[in-house]
Amino acid sequence: DLYGIFDGHGSRNTAVFVAKNFSKVLREQMEKPLESGELPTVESALRSTFLELDKQVAPEAKMSGCTAVVV
């Protein structure tokens, strides 16, 4: 199970985007092999997920952001 709290600041748009897309992007990152050919650790996949979501939302979120906690 995956649980997350996504708190928007500036507006709720970024938090809504991240909440809707987090599990999909995490799944993609977990299945994406590393350069070594191995699958990433959960910690590595979580880091990659946050970085990827930041890239996706950045063009639209000039004045808003999101703080997240996931377990």
Written overview of the protein:
- This protein has 71 residues and is an alpha+beta fold.
- It is 49% helix and 17% strand.
- The chain has 2 helices and 2 strands, in the order βααβ.
- It has a two-stranded antiparallel ribbon.
- Helix 1 packs across helix 2.
- It is elongated, with a radius of gyration of 13 Å.
- The mean pLDDT is 91.
What is the terminal-to-terminal distance? Answer: 8 Å
Average pLDDT score? 91
Largest sheet: 2 strands, antiparallel
Rounded radius of gyration (Å) = 13 Å
Strand content: 15-25%
Helices and strands, in order, run as EHHE
Count of β-strands: 2
Q: Helical region count?
A: 2
Helical fraction equals: 40-55%
Summarize the structure.
The chain is α+β, with helices and mostly antiparallel strands and about 70 residues long. The chain is built from two helices and two strands. Helix 1 crosses helix 2.
Layout of helices and strands:
Elements: E1 4-9, H1 13-31, H2 42-57, E2 65-70
Antiparallel strand pairs: 1-2
Question: Characteristics of this structure?
Answer:
single chain, 71 residues, alpha+beta, two-stranded antiparallel sheet, 2 helices, 2 strands, 49% helix
